[in-house]
TrEMBL record:
Sections of the chain in a coiled coil: none
Keyword Transmembrane helix listed: yes
Membrane-spanning intervals of the chain: 6-36, 72-94, 106-125, 146-175, 195-227, 262-280
Protein family according to the UniProt entry: Belongs to the 4-toluene sulfonate uptake permease (TSUP) (TC 2.A.102) family.
Membrane topology: Multi-pass membrane protein
Primary localization class, coarse: membrane
Cellular compartments annotated: Cell membrane; Membrane
PANTHER family linked to this entry: MEMBRANE TRANSPORTER PROTEIN MJ0441-RELATED, MEMBRANE TRANSPORTER PROTEIN YJNA-RELATED
Keywords for this protein: Cell membrane, Membrane, Transmembrane, Transmembrane helix
Organism: Saccharopolyspora rosea
Domain of life: Bacteria
Protein name (Swiss-Prot/TrEMBL): Probable membrane transporter protein
Length: 301
């Protein structure tokens, strides 16, 4: 397998993670499968092994900024960690040999499409939270829903490597609508550390994780994350998230072996939707800007 193309792929994925906080497993696993021809189980295991080294970067930033709800983490970890570890051992339920690889490919594709839906849900929920001004630094944790989120999210991550930074955060927003946005992101990144480590350990035991492959990806991913994080405050995050959504949609449909014409139409529709959404957001923003400008122009008595 080519060394430098893998390094470049790792750099691009790391850059996306540093810039948007999303796209680790959702990008690296399909790239390994679709571009480099890695079998799906090895791609999942290797991506999880690489994520163990990638996740602490963002988690440390949020820990220093004190945007981690440790009371929420403690209710996620008890179910997420064992579920993530068990994911590798549940894969034989899909079959074995070529049957397993084919079904796992479909499962990863399904997880990617769920991640795209989760990105839309996250945007809609964030807008509702903004309109309702519902954020509360003292929002209480709901233990039972949080334990269930850890269980479901852990299983998905353990079996497909997708979801630790996309699906779980959406479920957290649904269960805890008053949590502050930065606390949701920080908490999700921190809980992902033991979850991804447990899932990677399960795949190492099963023999799916290829450490050489993971190490090659990390050569590019680590500097990519650093550069992405440096640029994250200047780049238009909304445009980047829409671009990521289009890429995930295309990858998911290709893993499902959807015809190229249909995939292209679906991606084009998503791009048009993104353009409409951006235009509507600008139109809503203009009256507020005009009102502020008019207020500041008034003479002071």
């Amino acid at each position: 397998m080519d060394f430098w193309p893998l390094v470049l792929a790792g750099a691009l994925v790391g850059f996306s993670v540093g810039l948007t906080g999303m796209g680790g497993g959702a990008l690296m696993t399909p790239i390994m499968v679709l571009v480099f021809g890695v079998n799906p189980s090895s791609a999942v295991g290797s991506d999880l092994a690489a994520s163990v080294a990638m996740k602490p970067v963002g988690a440390l930033v949020h820990h220093r900024a004190r945007t981690v709800r440790w009371d929420l983490v403690k209710w996620l970890v008890p179910t997420a960690v064992p579920a993530g570890f068990a994911g590798a051992f549940l894969l034989p339920l899909f079959g074995d040999g070529h049957v397993l690889q084919a079904r796992l490919k479909l499962a990863v594709g399904g997880a990617l499409l769920l991640a795209v839906a989760g990105m839309f849900a996250r945007v809609l929920l964030a807008r509702r939270r903004g309109e309702a001004a519902a954020e509360d630094a003292r929002a209480r944790v709901r233990p039972v829903p949080t334990l269930l989120i850890g269980l479901v999210g852990g299983l998905i991550v353990g079996m497909t490597s997708v979801g630790s930074g996309s699906l779980i955060i959406v479920m957290l927003m649904l269960a805890h609508p008053k949590l502050r946005a930065n606390e949701l992101v920080g908490t999700d990144l921190v809980q992902a550390l033991p979850l991804v480590a447990a899932a990677a350990a399960g795949h190492l035991i099963v023999g799916d994780a290829k450490l050489g492959l993971a190490g090659t990806v990390l050569i590019g991913a680590i500097p990519g994350i650093y550069l992405g994080a440096k640029l994250s405050t200047r780049a238009p995050a909304g445009i980047l998230r829409w671009a990521l959504a289009v890429l995930l949609l295309a990858s998911g449909l290709k893993l499902w072996e959807v015809p190229n014409n249909t995939t292209a139409l679906a991606c084009a529709a998503l791009i048009v939707l993104g353009g409409i959404s951006a235009a509507v957001r600008r139109l809503r923003h203009r009256p507020a800007v005009a009102a502020v400008a008019a207020d500041t122009a008034q003479p002071r008595v």
